[in-house]
């Protein structure tokens, strides 16, 4: 067993950026030129086991340095903490970081500081899972319901989810959990792919990738929409023709519309039988989502990747504003807050279909969905994890997809660790790629 006298000795941060905008990977109606980036953190200790905790939050380029600075502002709360105590109760650190009154003023519990807290808290969970020699999904699924319930912050949500209710849900989720873990390891967790659907792709590329998705075993794809209705009609027609009637096609507006526009636009695409419309308007507009949901049925309404905390998720559920809840592993305050959101979704019976893609989001969120299946909701019905085939080769334990399903991770940890070569190459602005790129641009300017 790792020594309990060991402590956190350093919190190292990195600004990692990938030039994805050059191929229009990740392009959508609101984000036409994203450079997928990670504000990356490594917790180092003086323990004999030499385990490290890895975490990050996802951005799309400029501003990643701001996100790194936010993580750096939290270091003094972490360095010197006993490793054993920290891993035995990650919620203690979560409460400390959220409770820093001066930094809290910048939120509270939202935006850059909250995402920074999530990166650090997730790194603690990565470290805890490594010390227990388990993948995170298994660590959570094996944990005592009483301990898991104690990891949740009920402030601001206790009017709809009390600690006793959470404990009841978690105890109920244990029934049949062992067999579901066996099933998960055997067949994986269903996924869907957005790879064909980026707005900057040609119709030929969309069609080719859509057909490939079906051949790869996916039963759902997703298209970005919202910039031009005529283009969206053409692209949806091409996608539906490529995949046939038996494959779900979801659409995603990335917050582009006003409420009335969302209704009008979604109805205009209804002939292509969209399974859900994602982020039709501002992620903060609970009542707007409720109005859209009522107006566009039977098309479902999905949101969550930019929902800033458990409180907004609570209200979306209270208002009956969504059919699909989309957690994001790096948007809120880490695993602890996502546990709260999963419990809220379980209470309301709303399927969770996580947002993923980006840099490492697939690697992280698979663990949360797998825990939810094994030890909370107990089902994968109408549940899928987003998959995008970008940047996985930069991780030590990348996701694996077989027949349209996520293979359950077996390596200890949160699958968050990036390869050192990738860190050295894509650190901004002085990594090998960016240094060479800057020299090439300077040479071109002189020519």
Task: Write up what this structure looks like.
With 447 residues, the chain is an alpha/beta fold. It has helices at residues 64-72, 83-88, 90-99, 101-104, 111-131, 136-142, 145-150, 163-173, 177-187, 203-215, 229-243, 259-268, 286-296, 310-318, 335-348, 361-375, 420-426, 432-446; strands at residues 8-17, 37-45, 53-59, 189-193, 220-224, 248-252, 274-278, 300-303, 324-325, 385-387, 401-402, 405-406. It is globular and about 65 Å long. It has a domain at 177-414: Enolase-like C-terminal domain (TIM Barrel). The chain is built from 18 helices and 12 strands. The strands form 3 sheets. It has a 5-stranded parallel beta sheet. 43% of the residues lie in helices and 13% in strands.
Annotate the secondary structure layout:
Blueprint: E1 8-17, E2 37-45, E3 53-59, H1 64-72, H2 83-88, H3 90-99, H4 101-104, H5 111-131, H6 136-142, H7 145-150, H8 163-173, H9 177-187, E4 189-193, H10 203-215, E5 220-224, H11 229-243, E6 248-252, H12 259-268, E7 274-278, H13 286-296, E8 300-303, H14 310-318, E9 324-325, H15 335-348, H16 361-375, E10 385-387, E11 401-402, E12 405-406, H17 420-426, H18 432-446
Parallel strand pairs: 4-10, 5-6, 6-7, 7-8, 8-9
Antiparallel strand pairs: 1-2, 2-3, 4-12, 11-12
Helix pairs in contact: 1-5, 3-5, 6-16, 9-16, 10-11, 12-13, 14-15
Key features of this structure:
447 residues, 13% strand, 5-stranded parallel beta sheet, alpha/beta, single chain, TIM Barrel
